[in-house]
């Protein structure tokens, strides 16, 4: 057991991390497993990558299983939840993380590019959150496991508030996630289900590799980050564990930006 296994804040909790096979999702899956959760690592196409994340977790003494589903497809999502409930009896934490970018200038953006990003990033979060909330309400409270009956964490972005030219499909999906999260939080609070978002800034993952693969591009990107470094998936993993834990029991309906200050309008630091 590594040292991080000594703080088991999510002990006996079953967690599903969508898009857990790479990037931020993999960072969250590993952090939750290290905090004692039994983690389902969802993937859509990358079975090998999901298996590698599961292996890393189990090699470190944690518990994880890979589960396939395209989160934008209702039948896939329902099959995934059925599998988890059959194997574990219930679920305590959903991390709605799957997300993609298909960038294009607005004038050139195809309906297909628009639809695909909305389907995965926004509809996918709706479908998974609905299944999770149904299970939380069916099962009811388990106070010996967690103060909340269930926890949903939506992976949003700084682009739920920062407009993004050349990425209107993506920025729209993240703006939509903000209202999806808040409206769910309002409706589900009486059931003691907490719903929150994490808004990552620039985290070093495959999704933004192109924006930082030359020293020049990396320098440009850093001008947007007052704290002066690009984030790592582990930066998000730690926050996700805390937000899912009882230490954050009074937090619902909030987006926690984890962005090194990207949402502080750094362009105004010496201008305006
Ligand atoms: C995007 C990344 C981008 C970051 C900051 C994220 O939501 O997926 O590509 O680097 O926001 O702009």
Automatic annotation (TrEMBL):
<dbReference type="InterPro" id="IPR036291">
    <property type="entry name" value="NAD(P)-bd_dom_sf"/>
</dbReference>
<dbReference type="InterPro" id="IPR020904">
    <property type="entry name" value="Sc_DH/Rdtase_CS"/>
</dbReference>
<dbReference type="Pfam" id="PF13561">
    <property type="entry name" value="adh_short_C2"/>
</dbReference>
<protein>
    <submittedName>
        <fullName>SDR family oxidoreductase</fullName>
    </submittedName>
</protein>
<dbReference type="InterPro" id="IPR050259">
    <property type="entry name" value="SDR"/>
</dbReference>
<dbReference type="InterPro" id="IPR002347">
    <property type="entry name" value="SDR_fam"/>
</dbReference>
<comment type="similarity">
    <text>Belongs to the short-chain dehydrogenases/reductases (SDR) family.</text>
</comment>
């Amino acid at each position: 057991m590594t040292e991080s296994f000594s703080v088991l804040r999510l002990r006996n909790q079953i967690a599903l991390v969508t898009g857990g096979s790479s990037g931020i999702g993999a960072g969250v899956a590993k952090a939750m497993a290290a905090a004692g959760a039994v983690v389902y690592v969802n993937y859509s196409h990358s079975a090998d990558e999901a298996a590698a994340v599961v292996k890393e977790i189990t090699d470190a003494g944690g518990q994880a299983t890979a589960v396939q589903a395209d989160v934008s497809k209702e039948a896939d999502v329902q099959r995934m939840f059925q599998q988890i409930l059959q194997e574990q009896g219930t679920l305590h934490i959903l991390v709605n993380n799957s997300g993609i970018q298909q960038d294009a200038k607005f004038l050139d953006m195809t309906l297909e590019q628009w639809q695909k990003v909305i389907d995965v990033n926004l509809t996918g979060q709706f479908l998974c959150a609905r299944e999770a909330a149904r299970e939380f309400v069916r099962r009811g409270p388990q106070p010996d496991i967690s103060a909340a009956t269930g926890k949903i964490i939506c992976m949003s972005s700084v682009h739920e508030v920062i407009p993004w030219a050349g990425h209107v499909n993506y920025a729209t999906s993240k703006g939509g996630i903000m209202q999806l999260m808040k409206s769910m939080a309002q409706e589900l609070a009486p059931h003691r289900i907490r719903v929150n978002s994490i808004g990552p800034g620039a985290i070093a993952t495959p999704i933004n590799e192109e924006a930082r693969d030359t020293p020049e591009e990396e320098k440009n990107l850093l001008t947007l980050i007052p704290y002066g470094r690009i984030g790592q998936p582990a930066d998000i993993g730690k926050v996700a564990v805390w937000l899912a834990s009882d230490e954050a029991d009074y937090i619902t309906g909030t987006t926690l930006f984890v962005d090194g200050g990207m949402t502080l309008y750094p362009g105004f630091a010496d201008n305006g």
